[in-house]
Amino acid sequence: LLCPCLIYGAYIFLPFDAPLLPTVSARLVYTLRCAAFATFPIVLGMIVSGISRLCSSALEPFGELHREMEIHRTYVSQSVHLFILYFFNMAVLATYLPQELLKLIPLLTGLFAISRLIFWMSYAIGRSFRAFGFSMTFLPLLAMLLWNLYGMFVLEPENLLS
């Protein structure tokens, strides 16, 4: 329930509009530029993971991982997988959205980045708390997938493979 409220509130109250993007290629470039910001939590996780490995007191740096290093490694791995799904869904979504709704692209990017950071913090606290951060990442991704499937099979079935 929190994700749709956050997106709606940001859509209504944030004072920016998407630029005029009449072609599909311009929309994909815009999506690519927005998606670059979604890699920030992943890069930050890689840096923290590298620093924690460097500062580890383990005799074998590539041997058995401590809990802290395992948390960072798992976070980066899962974030990369979710980012790939996010990016492809966002690219398809950008082709189906009308011009006035293209403001959702940077908003969904921001939600992805913030939710990955929340997941990382809650994962460090304990396994039972990470469901909130994961659901803030996964449920918008699922909504994008359903909208993309709706757009492909219901709105424009004649352009499915073109």
UniProtKB/TrEMBL annotation:
One of its GO terms (cellular component) is lysosomal membrane. The chain crosses the membrane at residues 30-54, 75-98, 104-125, 132-153. GO terms for biological process: regulated exocytosis. It comes from the Eukaryota. Keywords: Membrane, Transmembrane, Transmembrane helix. The keyword Phosphoprotein does not apply. This is TMM79 protein. It comes from Chloropsis hardwickii.
